[in-house]
Amino acid sequence: MAIVSGFASSPPSDRKLDMKCIFKCLGFIMLCVGLAGCGGGDAQEQAEVRVALALSNLRNPFFQELRDGALAEAAKQGVALTVLDAGDDPARQSEQIAALAKRRVAVILLNPVGAQAVTAAVRQAVAGGVKVVSLDRSLHGEPLSSHIESDNIAGGMLVGQYLMSRLGARGRIAELTGTAGSSVAHDRDAGLRQALSGHADAALLTRRGADFDRGKGQREMASLLRQYPDIRAVFAQNDEMALGAVAALRHAGRRNVAVVGFDAIPEAVAAVKAGELAATVRQQPGLMGRYGIQAAKRLAAGQGVDTYIAVPLKLITQADH
């Protein structure tokens, strides 16, 4: 109102000057607003949480489900997520971690190829200020921000208890183990042994490494049948190896060997329903991925997270169908 009043009382020659001043002032104000808007956009981009999910092997359906859960939660939380696959190659995963550290991602959600194979790269990333959360498999001796996993010792115990109840105390059992040196392989074996320790007549005949791989599981199962014709049960530390074992048994015409897997991937659940697989342990990899993103967002914001986050497990048998 003051400007309008002043304009009305000004002589015509001054009105042009007043108009020029007004337009200059308005232009200046609009420029300031525009710059403020641009600055807000830059701040928004800078505030975007950048997280990487570095997985050991995306050919495994378990890790595909983990990835999908992480992607869904990242979209929900407004997190920019990069997914990397090491193809079970520790050297490749070490290179990926080093590259992520240079890109200064806020958090790396890491499913390591082995418990020790990538520790040097992780140590350098942490020293550079990157937060690292391990998923499903832990790293030996590395003080990470958090570890998220199924309780694999409890899972191995579930399997052992189930086999003892199914076979009786005199069960003759073999074990197909995963990647040598991985925490998952170690803990599932420890749980199985703990469950069997209370049964003096139960025999864990042998442990055969099959690297969580279906083809290797099939080959090792065929070898076990030749060496231990009286074998009554097999615990395969993941469903891929379990399905390989089932294929070997089918080829040999053997129907009297109970095979238990781990992960409850859809194909394994279908095999349980069909009576080909005795049981599998249901993990929740999608939930594991979601927990990882939630933890990453808190860490990026400078908030604390639990150093250990457990994801529930359940034994799936034909009785569940």
TrEMBL record:
<comment type="similarity">
    <text>Belongs to the bacterial solute-binding protein 2 family.</text>
</comment>
<dbReference type="InterPro" id="IPR028082">
    <property type="entry name" value="Peripla_BP_I"/>
</dbReference>
<dbReference type="GO" id="GO:0030246">
    <property type="term" value="F:carbohydrate binding"/>
</dbReference>
<dbReference type="Pfam" id="PF13407">
    <property type="entry name" value="Peripla_BP_4"/>
</dbReference>
<dbReference type="GO" id="GO:0030313">
    <property type="term" value="C:cell envelope"/>
</dbReference>
<protein>
    <submittedName>
        <fullName>Substrate-binding domain-containing protein</fullName>
    </submittedName>
</protein>
<feature type="domain" description="Periplasmic binding protein">
    <location>
        <begin position="51"/>
        <end position="303"/>
    </location>
</feature>
<dbReference type="InterPro" id="IPR025997">
    <property type="entry name" value="SBP_2_dom"/>
</dbReference>
<keyword id="KW-0732">Signal</keyword>
